[in-house]
Amino acid sequence: MQVGYHDEPIGPAALAVMSLTVLQVCHRMGGALVRAEGNEKLSRGRQSEIWQQPC
What we know:
Blueprint: H1 12-28, H2 32-43
Helix pairs in contact: 1-2
């Protein structure tokens, strides 16, 4: 999983919080489609792909 800062350990809880934050920021910036795509991937349990989606 290449998230850009794999040198610091990130727990599942922190990942979930950051995922929600990223999705909220994308939504506020007008990235509703990106957020919907992210929610679909989250439901499939593929959180790592969200970090590769540009907002």
